[in-house]
Fold this sequence. Notes:
This protein has six helices and nine strands; from the N terminus they run H-E-E-H-E-H-E-E-E-H-E-E-E-H-H. It has 205 residues and is α+β, with helices and mostly antiparallel strands. The chain has a domain at 114-205: GCC-box Binding Domain, CATH 3.30.730. The longest helix is centred in the C-terminal third of the chain and has 22 residues, at 162-183. The protein is elongated.
Amino acid sequence: MQVKMLISNKTKQVYGVGNNNGKYRATGNREYYLWKAMLARCYELPRPLNHAKYEGCTVSENFKGYSFFYEWCQQQIGFNAKDEKGNYWHLDKDLLLRGNKLYSEDTCVFVPLKINLLLTKRESKRGDYCIGVRLHKRDNVYEARCNNGTGVSKYLGYYGTEQEAFQAYKVYKEALIKRVAEKYKDQLDPRAYQALLNYQVEVTD
C-alpha cells in the first residue's frame, strides 16, 4: 500500500491537462518529447505564434495520459522509422481524417517529414487566389506552381482563368502525393497509404 501511494504522488500535470504517473522515463525519451509537444500545441498559454495553426486542437482523454501514449507509440507502424536524412517520422493528426483537430489513438499515424510537408497548408503564403495560383497582372494570366516535394517550386504553366490554373495544380499535386505514397508503401501504416491514394486537393486547401 505504501508503494502505491508513492507512485500516485509522482503523478505530474503537464500544461494543466496531461498526466505523467512516472511509469515510464521522461528525460531523454522520444515518446515524452512527442507527448509534451502535442500537449503544448493544444494547451500552452499564452499561445506561441508558431502554434497559431493549432487553434481549436485538442487531445483525447487517453492521449492525455503519458503512459497510454507511450504504450500506443510502441504499437504504431513508423514510430521508430527514419527518413533518408536520418530524421524520425512525424506524428500526424489529419491525414486519416481531413480537417481533424483531435489528437487521438484513432486519428494519429506516423509519416515521413516529406509527406507531412506535402500536406501542410501554407495559408500565410497563399495570397488572394486558389492554392498554387497567382495572377500576373501585366499579362492578365494565371500562373500555376507547385512544390515538387524536394523544396523546389515547379512551374506548371500560364492559364486564362484562375480555375484552369488551380486544376493544373490539383492534377500535379495529387499525382505527386501518390508517387510519394508508392515510395513509402511498404513502410507506411496501411491506413495512411490508402488515405494518400485517396487524397484530393480542394479549392479550400
